Amino acid sequence: MPRGFFVTFEGLDGSGKSTQLRRLKESLQSRGLPVTATRQPGGTRTGERIRALLLDSRAESLSPFTELGLMFSDRAQAIAEVIAPALEAGHIVLCDRFTDSSEAYQGGGRQLGSQVVRELHAALCSGLAPDLTLLLLPNFDRSLARARRRNERALAATGSDENRFEQEDSAFYRRVFDKYRQIAAREPLRVAVIDSDGSIDEVHKRIVQVVQERLFPC
Ligand code: TYD
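A: This is the predicted complex of the input protein with thymidine-5'-diphosphate.
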């Protein structure tokens, strides 16, 4: 059976991940390659409902384990409905966040530890591992400030209330950041750390270079 290529994007809120995913999708498609793009949480009808639950800042009373369980419920559905079928069809799947986010945010940020996340991944996601993870790590303080500004703008413009995670304090984000670095050090063959300081074009070029090396080695 043909098998596509599974690429995940990871990073802190405000790291420019979603823009870069879109740029990579356009550049792969312009080469005639089949691409499926999705995001977590979300990406399926069930997932979008789970996303609303998770990100709504009014749901402040969610326990860390509830949060983790919901992330994996979303992920299991996305794998079944979108990711596995697309990979089987030979697509390049670009996924905005995957299990590394759970390890960084719930494992690191919420201090549940890595082990429970890795065990849930093995049990609920059949251990599906990305072929390549692009970890966008910018300067820590700049990234945090950008996430806050973006959130304030969204709230002012739309009344959108997706700011639950961005209300976390900087110690939380420091733990997320440190966990991401640990994951990258643990799995250097899978995880490529991309310096995401620089213009959108500059970061895009860095990403294209890594993807070229990993996907199309000559
Ligand atoms: P989103 O608006 O998609 O943020 P971003 O554009 O930064 O990806 O919100 C997703 C939020 O959910 C983000 O703060 C990270 C968090 N998250 C987790 O805590 N655990 C997870 O497993 C996933 C997938 C996301």
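DSSP finds eight helices and five strands in the chain. The beta strands are 5-11, 35-39, 92-96, 132-137, 191-195.
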